[in-house]
Amino acid sequence: MRCLGLSLIFVNTLSIFRHREAPGNNRTGGEPDVIGRNKKTGEIIFVDCSPESPKGRRSVCYDAAALASRKENKPKHSALGMAAEMGIESLTEQEYRNLQKLGEFDLKTSSWIATPADVRQLGGAMFCDRRYNTVWTYHNGAESYYAARGFRGILRV
Length: 157
Description:
The structure is a single chain. The chain has 157 residues and is an alpha+beta fold. The chain has one domain (8-156). Helices cover 25% and strands 25% of the residues. The strands form 2 sheets. It has a 4-stranded antiparallel β-sheet. A 4-stranded mixed β-sheet has the order 6-5-4-7. A hairpin with a 6-residue loop joins strand 1 and strand 2 (44-48). The longest helix has 12 residues, at 8-19.
């Protein structure tokens, strides 16, 4: 674990989050780990710490509206739809940047991130990656999907 000194209850919670990723439970390749604790609320923060965007969560568009808008060549799912089914959320830009302080992630892939409503209403969605030792934030049409773009999950307990 990236955060030491946690009680057994928190370790059990991590086990539950990992169980959601277990074989037979629609394993997507996420590597959930404890990355911190919210000092105000006391919540333990779990994030997918796989080196690249989890393989089973790639080739997805941003959300259900984007999925519905595609007339042809629809992806199998959307990032926000998969996250909801798993009981997790997509990272915000700041959460993604904080994750990058713990290591180097998405050197070959990219990850959809939570997108502000005003950007989404205009048809856009945001994603991040790490290239050239820098974390980059970009935009794309929410209906787009790529083999190297997925999403990372966050769970607060």
